[in-house]
Amino acid sequence: MSGADRIKQLAxxxxxxxxxxxxxxxxxxxxxxxxTMALVKRPDxxxxxxxxxxxxxxxxxxxxxxxxxxxxxxxxKIAVSVEIxxxxxxxxxxxxxxARAEIIQGGSTISVVKVEVSSRKAGAERICAFATATMRAxxxxxxxx
Amino acid sequence: MSGADRIKQLAxxxxxxxxxxxxxxxxxxxxxxxxTMALVKRPDxxxxxxxxxxxxxxxxxxxxxxxxxxxxxxxxKIAVSVEIxxxxxxxxxxxxxxARAEIIQGGSTISVVKVEVSSRKAGAERICAFATATMRAxxxxxxxx
Amino acid sequence: MSGADRIKQLAxxxxxxxxxxxxxxxxxxxxxxxxTMALVKRPDxxxxxxxxxxxxxxxxxxxxxxxxxxxxxxxxKIAVSVEIxxxxxxxxxxxxxxARAEIIQGGSTISVVKVEVSSRKAGAERICAFATATMRAxxxxxxxx
Amino acid sequence: MSGADRIKQLAxxxxxxxxxxxxxxxxxxxxxxxxTMALVKRPDxxxxxxxxxxxxxxxxxxxxxxxxxxxxxxxxKIAVSVEIxxxxxxxxxxxxxxARAEIIQGGSTISVVKVEVSSRKAGAERICAFATATMRAxxxxxxxx
Lengths: 145, 145, 145, 145
Known about the structure:
The structure is a homotetramer of 145-residue chains.
Chain A: H1 3-14, H2 19-23, E1 26-31, E2 34-40, H3 54-71, E3 77-88, E4 96-105, E5 110-121, E6 124-139
Antiparallel strand pairs in A: 1-2, 2-4, 3-6, 4-5, 5-6
């Protein structure tokens, strides 16, 4: 399968009913070892102060890290999270958050990914969170290959 | 304000429109230094395999840690997350997840909280995630005191 | 090999020249899923303020987590650290630090361990750090089995 | 105090008796928001397999993060670690390890720093660990200003 086909496969998985689709995550771009995802603000994604909720930010970072790691794994594998650690750096008070994932260490079994999350407000971006995630490879179930 | 009043205040904040309300988080119990929250599964909260999505698990853990830390802070303060780290231990394949937060170290400025998340399936519980979170105290905006 | 023999084997490994021996780490006790190690203060283990250095605390926590995970793995395996996360809760201003590791999730490939580190001063203990570590199993080299 | 003077002050603190001096940590370079430290291998700094011990790697990363954060804080402040999280990516089997710290978010109270640790072997460098650390500002005791 070509790189483009694998990205299409990933995008297809994200279109399945579930959390990533319901909150509106989308893949913005993907290249070797890097992947960017984004998410537009909605009233049901905010916390107390009207900014993106930490769980939504962590969810986007986790998903971007997993997709990024999956693309660097052998075909037929999907990355699942062993753990994720995220620092919240500033209020995510923009209209959109963008998660830029980058492989720190790829591997056929364990991968480590860093993710910078920015908040876009009136056209300007500001970093609002930084995460690292450890992923491990699982066999992609037959129906999805 | 009494402890019971503060828990009522917290529950009120959770009833505001936003992520915690929209996904259905609820406070199960709260006592000195401990707080339990839960969340029932819905199709829009799952990942690829039909289990709770990591972002939802992290979001519940984060919210439970924040509420737990808030209750241990002076009145008029609310806890905001500095960082959270979560290990995913087993698929959250139950009908409900329960997050049990407990203060490791309280403080007027910084608190550290651990959270054990269990998945309940057919009446049996199994741990599915473990998190630690660092929280700092912010002034609760005037409208919410 | 019996449990007692495996603990003896672990203690033997700790007696090999290297960091754990040079700083004076020792196993205090070990039982199923739990292991306690300790370390006495020396001038070369302190930081700026004369308390235990964060690296020494992290090193003891890491070592305790690894030994604890190793004992829960099949014979012939040794745990190596995938990652460790440690919160420093209070100055480690005692004469000794004690790390109590406990398996959160054992496994033949990946284990997750939590570690509470206390500082003992004039007979009283106070928690000074809390860590979680992810460990993976490696084959113990032939010479050490 | 000039930037150069502050770096000299930091180097002076590292020359005080204690862990950083005893293991041989040294500042390689420092500029705005970045700081590099290194450490040469010795038999008392290794683990089981003869590579740098995880505690030593974590200790160097922690120290580099703290020094880096201190330089971005107002004069008269010193950074102390709230927490550190480190992923071990490859055996640190070189003759020297180099920790490159960089501010992700500076601040007068809380700073977040990332640290890439490389192992240098026969002139070639390879990344062996990646850490993020949360630091908070404390008043530098009078004697050290």
